[in-house]
Amino acid sequence: MHLALWVVMVSTALSAAQGRPRPGVTGERLAISLALAACVLPLALAALNRRRRPEAATVALSLVLGGGGCVLGFLQSGALTVVPVSAAVALAFARLRPGLALLPAVPLTAAITVVTVCVSTSGNAFQEGVAAALLCAVLGAVCMFARQARLRHDQAELLLAELTDSREAQARAAAVAERTRIARELHDVLAQSLSALAVQLEGARKLAERDGVDPLLRQLIVRSGELTREGLSDARQAVAALRGDDAPVADQLTALVGRCRRDLALPITLSVSGEPRTLAPEANLALYRGAQEALTNAARYAPGSATTVVLRYTPQATTLTVSDEGRAAGARGDGGDGVPAPPAEAWTGGGNGLRGMRERIERVGGRIHAGPAGEGWTVEMEIPA
């Protein structure tokens, strides 16, 4: 359409320059110059400005263009009078609704028909007028159908995009439902086994109290019962995260650090800086599990070492850093209550903790860095805001 407008503008200007009388600055020649300007300027505006303009502006543009063509054809013999007028009709139907496009199209078509009949010097004036009217009608119909086809194409693309989004949403919902089902099954299994284990440990504690066994053994039995209950709580937390109902990560870390101080014999400090933000449940769970794994590794490879957990909120990301100072010489290796930390051979695991952390963090769009820092070890997890 834009290329056609440029062609019409050039052909109209060339025809007017070669017609009689030619454009000028006085009398009738000045009127021809103004009519030519009324043709060229709207064509240039329509070709250069591709943004969608108000309907009233398009109607005015078509009227000015068509009116200039009619005046130019009436004043100048030999000009291509029908070209700018038919272009005005085509422009109206190409950019306006059919009912609104008729407002400029009908009077312009009638005007060019009358002008063509009046200025004709041949014996076929009526046929020339009909031909001019038919040209305007045909171009208008072509542009109207092209506009409707373009609108239908745009609507089809929009519907296709909505269908794609709907299918993706259904796939995500199905994945979440499946994950929730699996998590619920695992939770039920763990709930039965851990609940039974908690009952057995409570019985063992009472027997130990009755028989007066070593206080350290009684304390270990009590801790085992607490760990069992906390494991059941963690299973419930994982299911809650999958359902989208999750506690803030700062609250979870506070509880985790408290348990690790007591059960893993680690002197841990926790600090939170920045303006807290709400994270997605999957991101909350990834940070929590990463901190859990990092603290477990610190207790395993650097028992008794001072450990820091730093949660930072910045405008760009949420960052969690867990650092230890390495195996401390002469460290007590207990939690401060005389209960020894578990020996290295008591830990279980296939050595895949770091890989699991990385997979969790990357799955939610974050990154992780783990490596030595001085004599200790640092794990840094970052999730973009």
Radius of gyration: 41 Å
Structural class: alpha+beta
Helix content: 55-70%
Strand content: 5-15%
Q: Low-confidence parts, pLDDT < 50 over ≥5 residues?
A: 329-351
Terminus-to-terminus distance:
45 Å
Number of helices: 10
Mean pLDDT: 80
Q: What is the total tally of β strands?
A: 5
Within the largest sheet, what's the order of strands?
1-2-3-5-4
- Main pleated sheet: 5 strands, mixed
Element order: H for helix, E for strand: HHHHHHHHEHEEHEE
Q: Per the principal axes of the C-alpha atoms, what is the gross shape?
A: rod-shaped
Core attributes:
single chain, 385 residues, alpha+beta, five-stranded mixed beta sheet, 10 helices, 5 strands, rod-shaped
List the helices and strands and how they pair.
Elements: H1 2-18, H2 27-48, H3 55-75, H4 82-95, H5 98-119, H6 125-211, H7 215-242, H8 249-263, E1 268-273, H9 281-301, E2 307-313, E3 317-324, H10 353-363, E4 367-373, E5 376-384
Parallel strand pairs: 1-2
Antiparallel strand pairs: 2-3, 3-5, 4-5
